[in-house]
Amino acid sequence: MNYQVLLSQMLEATLMSLRIFFVTIIFSLPLALLVAKGRMSKIKIIKLPVSLYILLMRGTPLMLQLLFFFYALKPIFGIQLERVMAAEIAFILNYAAYFAEIFRGGIESIPSGQYEAAKVLGFTHRQTFFRIILPQVIKHIIPPMGNEFITLVKDTSLAQVIGIAELLKVTSNWVSSSVNMTPLVIAGVFYLIMNGVVTRCFTVAENKLSYYR
Amino acid sequence: MHIITAKNIYKSFDNTEVLKGISIEVNKGQVLAIIGPSGSGKSTFLRCINQLETIDSGEITVCGETLAKNNDEGKAVYADKNSCVKIGLHIGLVFQDYNLFPHFSVLQNITEAPIRVLKQSKAEAEKRARELLDKMGLSDKANAYPCQLSGGQQQRVSIARALAMNPEILFFDEPTSALDPELTGEILKVIRSLADEHWTMVVVTHEMKFARDVADHVVFMDNGTIIEQGNPQEIFENTQNERTKAFLARFNEE
């Protein structure tokens, strides 16, 4: 086994995994905030579709959603997405649903007195949300968000079902062609390093926000 | 001059009527105490004037501007949104449980609204905030966070926060109910000093002695109505009303 080739291929595949990870985070977090707002809306025509969306995303396998966005859009809508694009859309929509529920829990845990104090002081709704509520929400949701981020790092491996050469796909190709288990161990170490960094970031964020209760 | 005029305020939650025709006037410089048993609608009334609750019918005027008045069907109609916000800024409110913003330092708790809402400069807002902290005896706490302060200190910060908006009138919603007797004294002293400076104030309170000593007008509420109102002497010493007598008797026993 040529370790130099193995490692360079695995690193390249890791970049693909990381790309899916970052694109998902960057787009699904803002989307999740909107979804959470919609889910908490008192207007039924907003709340019901949003609830249905969350149910679909959380109630069906992510792998099914990946297959859907790559294979099923063509016969239904006549749209063929490029592989990576299909994967990213599936991941963004799926993770936004989970993040939205975490945001909702965080937002609902803020006591009504905070809104009342903000209102009496004349803050607009926007100022109240972004200056008063959201910073407190972020502190509350760091632990569950950490879980989701870690899961996402590992979930990127699902993208192989639509033929994307991410880390685990490349690894298993090597394992089956060379009948050597070393690549699996290396892949495990790669995932551990990625999640070590994620964990570290969350610990730092948690400590940074520990100045208040 | 009337700072606040409330006429015939009615308010129900679901099917329970909590305010049954409350009328009150507050003059400039007056300290008005609202007393009465729990659940009598005192706090709800305060919250209605502050727009934290909406009234079903009646009329509210603040500093000569109409916040809400009845339409032909006898239902309260509010002024447009901008006017409501503007009217709200005439009134400062101090909550029972302070409601400070936990992620802001003491200084930022006080300066955030003057900077963002009143568009004061940061320097101007901080100067005023430090003056107010000084007055509250908290000059050394400007950089502390609310969780590092005692209840009494937090409540003094929240009074400073309300004062920083330069309101025409200050409302206190049971400002000492979450505090032990020692800290209660601390807060009452602050309110008393504000009264000496002729701030117009409405205080919902269970501190009868305080109401008697500091207020110049006392309103006794029970079950959503005003049973009796007058100067402290009339209410606390010469009341002829049986309900008021019964209520005060319990406090005098203590």
Give a quick precis of the structure.
The complex is a heterodimer of chains A (213) and B (254). With 213 residues, chain A is mainly alpha-helical. Helices cover 82% and strands 0% of the residues of chain A.
Layout of secondary structure:
The complex is a heterodimer of chains A (213) and B (254).
Chain A: H1 3-39, H2 44-59, H3 62-77, H4 83-108, H5 112-120, H6 125-155, H7 167-178, H8 182-208
Helix pairs in contact in A: 1-4, 1-7, 2-4, 3-4, 4-6, 5-6, 6-8, 7-8
Chain B: E1 2-13, E2 16-27, E3 31-35, H1 42-49, E4 57-62, E5 65-70, E6 76-78, H2 81-88, E7 91-94, H3 106-116, H4 122-135, H5 151-163, E8 169-173, H6 181-196, E9 200-204, H7 208-214, E10 217-222, E11 225-230, H8 232-236, H9 242-253
Parallel strand pairs in B: 3-9, 3-10, 7-8, 8-9
Antiparallel strand pairs in B: 1-2, 1-4, 4-5, 5-6, 10-11
Helix pairs in contact in B: 3-4, 3-5, 5-6
Care to describe what's here?
The complex is a heterodimer of chains A (213) and B (254). Chain A has 8 helices and no strands. By secondary structure, chain A is an all-alpha fold. Chain A has one domain: MetI-like (MetI-like fold, Orthogonal Bundle). In chain A, α1 packs across α4, α3 (62-77) crosses α4 and α7 runs antiparallel to α8. Chain A is flat, with a radius of gyration of 20 Å. The model of chain A has no long low-confidence stretch (mean pLDDT 95). Chain B is of the alpha/beta class. Chain B has a domain at 99-166. Chain B has 9 helices and 11 strands. In chain B, the strands form 2 sheets. Chain B has a 6-stranded mixed β-sheet, with helices on both faces. In chain B, strands 2-1-4-5-6 form a 5-stranded antiparallel β-sheet. In chain B, β10 (217-222) and β11 (225-230) form a beta hairpin. In chain B, α3 (106-116) packs across α4, α3 packs parallel to α5 and α5 (151-163) runs parallel beside α6 (181-196). The model of chain B has no long low-confidence stretch (mean pLDDT 93).
